[in-house]
Design brief:
Elements: E1 2-7, H1 13-30, E2 46-51, E3 63-70, E4 80-87, H2 96-111, E5 117-122, H3 126-130, E6 135-143, E7 146-153
Parallel strand pairs: 4-5
Antiparallel strand pairs: 1-2, 2-3, 3-4, 5-7, 6-7
Length: 158
């Protein structure tokens, strides 16, 4: 598995297609949740993803996992964010999701150090995100008919 983290401006067409395809495959098809994924924020963020070493996206392979990392001021006023967190069905329960979070947190620390991190977690994943230092804030809410909870990881948390 090979990991990449690039701003929008450095994604080639095949990479962009691979990331959007995985997001649509999971969010729209698998979760049966038709919504507008392209919300105008992708251009402002970093895109982190994993692909198979022997079948990179550029050669017809597929993205296996991805997150979108946004600076403060895009989704939240004072917090950076991790969003569009996706793992393909074939790599779930193999540790790739944990690796995705570790690498996402490292990328945020490199690009925007010392800033709190916010995410909107599906409620069933609340315990998973707590393992990475996130704390629930507020009450659960529905986002696209799926129960979610806001979670924040305070600045400076190791």
């Amino acid at each position: 598995m090979v990991w990449h983290c690039r701003p929008w401006s450095e994604l080639d067409r095949e990479q962009l297609y691979g990331l959007l395809r995985l997001r649509a495959e999971v969010f729209v098809v698998e979760q049966d949740c038709p919504y507008q994924d392209l919300d105008g924020k992708d251009r402002q963020g970093l895109h982190l993803w994993a692909e198979c070493r022997n079948a990179p996206i550029a050669e017809g392979g597929e993205a296996l996992a991805t997150t979108r990392l946004l600076p403060a001021g895009v989704s939240y006023t004072e917090e950076v964010s991790i969003g569009r967190v996706v793992t393909s069905l074939e790599v779930r329960r193999t540790g790739v999701g944990r690796a995705l979070m570790v690498r996402s947190l490292e990328a945020l620390a490199d690009h925007w150090p010392g800033v709190p991190i916010r995410l909107s977690a599906q409620c069933y994943l609340e315990r998973f995100y707590r393992e990475f230092g996130f704390e629930s804030v507020g009450e659960p809410y529905l986002e696209d008919n799926i129960p979610h909870i806001a979670m924040v990881r305070p600045a400076g948390r190791p």
